[in-house]
Specification:
The protein has two domains: 74-143, Immunoglobulin-like (Sandwich), CATH 2.60.40; 148-476, TIM Barrel (Alpha-Beta Barrel). α7 runs parallel beside α8 and α10 runs parallel beside α11 (436-448). It has helices at 7-33, 35-44, 161-173, 197-202, 213-222, 237-242, 271-286, 316-336, 362-365, 395-409, 436-448, 471-476, and strands at 74-83, 93-96, 99-102, 108-115, 119-123, 130-133, 139-143, 148-153, 178-184, 226-232, 249-250, 291-295, 308-309, 340-346, 371-375, 416-417, 420-422, 453-457. The longest helix is centred in the first third of the chain and has 27 residues, at 7-33. The strands form four sheets. Strands 16-15-14-12-10-9-8-18-17 form a nine-stranded parallel beta sheet. A four-stranded antiparallel beta sheet has the order 3-2-5-6, covered by helices on one side. Strands 4-1-7 form a three-stranded mixed beta sheet, with no helix packed on it. With 477 residues, it is α/β, with parallel strands linked by helices.
Length: 477
């Protein structure tokens, strides 16, 4: 028939069409039954792009993002830590990925399996921290000396614009370069809106909570101010009152024991109390603090001590391991987070061979901190010191001898000594005013004894600015 294809040709066409449909069906079924094979084939051919439907993700499974960044190459990082005179610094901390390493006697370090480009923090008490980046070649990290001179800001003072401004003005124009801020004060209130479950449960959010604390910290950092978070540790009225199982108990009343200020204490033997305070320290570091300072890291000294009951017998043999154990754990966790750790101690620990009946002995504590901060207030030495019966008449000697002896007893550790100095009226002897001459005598005593700076204490945060050196004069020296 004219215009019709030959029969053979049509049969071939029909047969080819049928074979094509069959092949498409087979391939379609194979794609449905074995998508992983198709995807594997696509992976084997990186020069091709194959689009295929993935099977549904099982409940609870997480499918990796298509544009996920490839893992960074790992390398062994080596280097040396030196001071400004190119002398090796032994015992410096090298923090990588939340793990702390240490330089050897020659200042050298070696850290394996570090992602190239990862941040590395190098720190040593008495020096400014240094941030470097992981590279293949050996690193040479130079640490510069840092002498901290701080003023204290109380839980209420830091939130008062006038008080805070007064202290910051001193920091802008005098030798002050740091502040110590109550982040958990004497009553147990935490300064910022905390995320710690236990703190929220016991009501540790106090009346002066700083809702925008991050803005305050940004202001301090912009001014170049070194920040120290003071945590009142075992004296904690809030936690002890709401959790009597964690408190020092009164054998007479069956309730939490109270000191002479009518405030309750937590039990230093309770490790849950340790964890609570370290958690506050972790929050402080996360908010930008350079250092965490534990105060009241001791057993009570005043009140009806005979009625105080602890989780175990209160003896020198038990007290020392409790306080040292807490500081060891705190230093391990917070040091790895990049912070320095300090402990406030009684001034008499410089002279006493025992634990002063509070669990504080320099030889046991210094190995577990970066900074030992003795409270060398002349008014606090109610029995004087050897050779000086009236300490308020000899502020230089009191500070000098205290710092000198503590440094000697901390020999062999990385800890530096930075004392608290008295910038308030005498309360124990003749109630004399501590003014310019008394404060300068103390700062000179701390410097001459080899202290790594000092801190000023005044409960009202009102400091003797006239006793401080102007910033310009420091640069001239």
């Amino acid at each position: 028939m004219s215009g019709s294809p030959p029969v053979v040709t049509r049969h071939l066409f029909d047969g080819g069409f049928a074979l094509m449909l069959l092949a498409l069906a087979v391939l379609g079924g194979y794609a449905i039954l074995a998508p992983a094979v198709l995807l594997a084939a696509a992976d084997a051919r990186p020069d091709r792009i194959v689009i295929a439907s993935l099977p549904p993700t099982p409940p609870g499974a997480v499918r990796p993002a298509a544009d996920a960044e490839p893992p960074k190459e790992l390398a062994t990082i080596t280097g040396v830590v030196v001071d400004a005179e190119r002398r090796p610094i032994a015992g410096a901390s090298i923090v990588v990925g939340g793990v702390e390493h240490e330089s050897d006697a020659e200042g050298a370090f070696r850290v394996e399996s570090v992602p190239l480009g990862a941040p590395i923090l190098v720190k040593m008490p008495g020096y400014t921290k240094a941030a470097v980046t992981a590279t293949r070649g050996p690193l040479r990290v130079t640490l510069r000396p840092q002498v901290i001179k701080a003023a204290y800001l109380s839980y209420y003072g830091v939130g008062d614009a006038a008080i805070r401004g007064r202290v910051l003005e001193l920091a802008a124009h005098t030798e002050l370069n740091a502040v110590v801020i109550d982040v958990k004060g004497d009553r147990g209130w935490i300064l910022w809106p905390t995320e710690i479950e236990l703190a929220r449960a016991v009501g540790a959010q106090g009346p002066a909570t700083q809702r925008d604390f991050d803005a305050l910290m940004r202001n301090l950092k912009a001014r170049g101010i070194y920040t120290i978070a003071r945590i009142v540790t075992f004296k904690d009225n809030i936690l002890a009152t709401h959790r009597p199982d964690l408190a020092v108990m009164d054998t007479d009343t069956g309730r939490p024991w109270l000191d002479t200020e009518r405030l309750a204490w937590t039990d230093p033997f309770r490790e849950e109390v340790w964890d609570y305070n370290i958690a506050i320290g972790r929050e402080a570091v996360a908010r930008g603090f350079d250092e965490v300072q534990f105060d009241y890291v001791r057993f009570p000294t005043d009140g009806r001590l005979s009625a105080a009951r602890y989780a175990r017998a209160n003896t020198r043999e038990s007290r020392l391991p409790a306080i040292a154990g807490f500081l060891e754990r705190a230093r391990r966790e917070l040091g790895a987070a990049g912070a320095f750790v300090a402990a406030d101690v009684f001034g008499y620990t410089a002279f006493n061979d025992n634990d002063t009946d509070i669990g504080q002995r320099i030889e046991e504590l210094a190995p577990h901190v970066d900074v030992v901060s003795p409270m060398v207030y002349p008014s606090g030495y109610h029995r004087g010191i050897p050779g000086y019966r009236n300490p308020v008449e000899n502020p230089y000697k009191v500070v000098f001898e205290s710092v000198r002896l503590i440094r000697k007893r901390a020999t062999g550790t990385r800890a530096v000594v930075r004392p608290w100095l008295q910038d308030f009226r005498d309360y124990a002897f003749d109630r004399r005013v501590f003014g310019v001459s008394q404060l300068r005598a103390q700062t000179k005593g701390a410097d001459d004894a080899g202290g790594s700076g000092w801190m000023l204490w005044n409960p009202r945060n009102d400091y003797t600015g006239a006793a401080l050196q102007p910033k310009g004069s420091l640069a001239a020296k």
